[in-house]
């Protein structure tokens, strides 16, 4: 089977281009992209695809070399009688304006250009010349940087209109093909720069690994394919679970912390990663950030600052908001509601529903519990309870302080509760206005369960709108 036939088989197997479909070849001038162009030209002559033109983005990073690359690609297109679509973007300037790396800025600029070019000529795809060698290098590069399954998936055969039909072909095979076709190409001098991590992997690490595993390129590419299949399944599960647990709010999202913690760890991490990407507007999310969020949900209280956003957990609700969104939610009006026993009340200011019910002491789920949005307490009166926001001067005797009083303000300071979040924390009081429970932060010693208690009161919060 010829190389062009193998490429066609890969295109068909992965449904990258419909038979006879229009495609553009992205050409930089390097050997891989030039070989891609000639292979697609072969397939176009046979009617398998329709090669509509050559696209080239001048990144303006290596003047005058970048202008020379553009001229070379234009002549290649002319030689094959193809339209040449070219744009110039100052990637260095774009990186400075957006505050991102040059690599990321170049990626954004290329994909935007490819999408415009495809729409301009009615192409179904823009083909890139990445090889199985590139896939192996990408896998190792991301592995060494500490990527998860999404990163280890490597380069995908298709992302939007961009396709990679050469991911089963080696770089050496393409060089041999160009030699047989007697086609010249440009050598990018930066490919020999060992200060670039990818080049270190290409010229130093991979040759070393080949001494132990001659087929290391194929092995790593296979690992990337396995990781990609696992990641696609995990992504689907995380999206489904996230929709069940997540509520959109102004400037961010809220989660049912208890439901989030109950998920398998792999799914919970992915749900939180997706939320961070959505709220912070960045694809760069570290494992440490995700774990800090998970532990925050597990602890049911507190807050942490992350890049571009703030995460806080109050009354069993994990809230993730942008800096701007948080500022817009600073002013929270005071609130006060009656809570019948048994019964429940919605507290929109805190984003929760709080319920109360009596149970026999032996059926209580533990003594003096106040974690996970649940408190079990003993009460001397069964009159209606009050649920309100805290007020300056509020105090109670928390369990564990040997009956000593503690101001709620001091409690919040000790627990590092942000001032802006204190107004959202519900406080439950009995019919004599004594504090029973500071939701999520402590039960009063005056309402501890003793052996003489015949029945106890179970107080429970759940996210507003949760009907379970």
Overview of the structural elements:
With 468 residues, the protein is an alpha+beta fold. The protein has three domains: 3-214, 3-Layer(aba) Sandwich (Rossmann fold), CATH 3.40.50.620; 250-328, Uridine Diphospho-n-acetylenolpyruvylglucosamine Reductase, domain 3; 336-463, no CATH class. It has 16 helices and 22 strands. The strands form five sheets. Strands 3-2-1-4-6-5 form a six-stranded mixed beta sheet, with helices on both faces. A hairpin with a 5-residue loop joins strand 19 (426-429) and strand 20. The radius of gyration is 30 Å and the shape is elongated.
| Amount of beta strand | 15-25%
How many angstroms separate the termini? 60 Å
| Approximate shape | elongated
CATH class identity of the largest domain: Alpha Beta
Q: What is the number of helical segments per DSSP (H or I, 4+ residues)?
A: 16
Return the domain count: 3
Average pLDDT for all residues: 85
CATH superfamily of the largest domain: HUPs
Overall radius of gyration: 30 Å
CATH fold description of the largest domain:
Rossmann fold
